[in-house]
Design goal:
431 residues; alpha+beta; Cytochrome Bc1 Complex, Chain A, domain 1; 2 domains; 6-stranded mixed β-sheet; 5-stranded mixed β-sheet; 11 strands; globular
Length: 431
């Protein structure tokens, strides 16, 4: 699959990445580096609410029906999303009509009406979206973990807001927010798919996005982390959800990219070994996986599973004992690394063959590191990994302050003490 993305700048400074592919369609994503973690408490949920209203009508397309009929006629589809650090608008269309999609997204961002009646309709819709999120057990666990570890704000309120803030937003507040938070300086546009004439596409982008102002947009990249052991009681449940977390060894910089993928190989080996112990050898869990949580600058990695309350101490003990043994004497081999690389070829094909996923990857990588994702270089990094590199760069994996977060049936075990005793006993040779 051809891979030769190129970097461009519009006259107002908007970053553009063009990624030609041998397809019949073209995908576009317009992403702003502003998200829910940039909101102050009175604004919780405002980014997401504005995302809704930026898709709810312009003078050209005042209704959803008129918008959908227009896109259907031209063979396109459009949507939007809000993340912790991003606000994105994206579409996919038959390649000959990419200029139609560019013009359409530009119109939504520049000319949305923020109609007062539709604001009230979306207010009710978003409140319902929040209630559904708060009723979801998996979301409840994420919320509890976020609230406990990351400064008191839950994942649900991080994007959706609270019923109080959602009910408080005014039209003027939304318009002010859009004018303050959308700028050419925090905008990246990615286009992947069939690109017949790059200059023509750049001209279309120039015409449709020249309205963006050029002021700086500050970002909140600091989110506090407080390591802890905490349980979210759900006494009506039989099982206990379990997460064990450790701070990332290497800061997320381009200079640490190779070190990070070495640690990833160590984690991959360890997760498979621990999964075999817990499920195949002892039948204590249905599934066991790795986990990464955090913010735009820092990550915390570890393990995620669930089991019955009575099995919980045995699960923690086995994870600690075997993780300690693997860390002390990693039996990972060159054959393991080769096998991972071969298996990853399938995952590489998943995104290389998808315009939407390529567009996402190119934008996120540029956002993180300020450069275009170099697939050939990355592949070379993975192929160059040695066992000694994996071992060396994973030292300190368990050295930082750990957290154990649980949700579900109540129990009286001291999981931190169980972990410490089993982990340290293995390290000291069982003495």
């Amino acid at each position: 699959m051809k891979y030769n993305p190129t970097l461009h700048k519009l006259s107002n400074g908007v970053t553009v990445i063009l990624d030609p592919m041998d397809l019949a369609t073209t995908s576009i994503k317009v992403s702003f580096a502003t998200g829910s973690q940039d909101e102050n408490p009175s604004e919780y949920g405002l980014t997401h609410f504005c995302e809704h209203m930026l898709c709810k009508g312009t003078p050209r397309f005042p209704t959803k029906k008129s918008r959908d009929e227009y896109l259907d006629y031209h063979g396109g589809a459009f949507n939007a999303s809000t993340g912790r650090g991003t606000l994105s608008f994206y579409g996919r269309i038959v390649a000959q009509n990419i200029s139609v999609m560019i013009d359409f997204i530009g119109d939504q961002l520049q000319n949305s009406l923020f109609d007062p009646d539709k604001i009230e309709i979306e207010r009710r819709v978003i409140c319902d979206e929040l209630r559904r999120a708060l009723d979801n057990p998996g979301r409840q666990f994420d919320d509890f973990m976020s609230e406990t570890l990351f400064g008191g704000r839950t994942f649900s309120t991080l994007n959706l807001g609270t019923l109080e803030t959602i009910g408080s937003f005014t039209r003027d507040q939304m318009l002010d927010f859009v004018s303050r938070r959308l700028s050419a300086k925090n905008c990246i546009i990615g286009i992947s798919g069939k690109i017949s004439d790059a200059n023509e596409i750049l001209d279309c982008l120039e015409k449709s996005f020249s309205f963006l102002p050029t002021h700086d947009i500050p970002q909140n990249t600091f989110i506090p982390y407080t390591p802890t052991v905490a349980h979210n009681s759900k006494p009506d449940k039989e099982n206990v959800r379990l997460r064990i977390l450790f701070p990332d060894i290497w800061p997320a910089t381009y200079e640490n990219y190779y070190r990070a993928i070495c640690v990833g190989r160590f984690e991959r080996f360890m997760i498979k070994e621990l999964s075999n112990v817990l499920r195949q050898d002892n039948g204590l869990v249905y599934g066991f996986s790795g986990l990464a949580v955090g913010n735009l600058q820092h990550l915390w990695n570890g393990f995620s599973t669930q089991t019955s309350a009575q099995n919980l101490p045995r699960v923690v003990e086995l994870v600690a004992t075997n993780a300690s043994a693997i860390y002390s004497d990693p039996k990972i081999t060159s054959d393991d690394l080769d096998r991972y690389n071969r298996k990853d070829a399938l995952g590489d094909a998943d995104w290389l063959e998808s315009a939407t996923r390529r567009c996402d990857k190119l934008i996120s990588f540029y956002r993180d590191f300020g450069r275009i994702y170099d697939f050939a270089w990355t592949l070379q990094q993975f192929n160059n990994i040695t066992v000694s590199d994996v071992v060396e760069n994973s030292r300190g994996y368990f050295s930082g302050p750990m957290s154990i977060i649980t949700q579900g049936a109540d129990f009286e075990y001291d999981l931190k003490a169980i972990w410490d005793n089993a982990f340290n006993k293995q390290i000291s040779g069982g003495k």
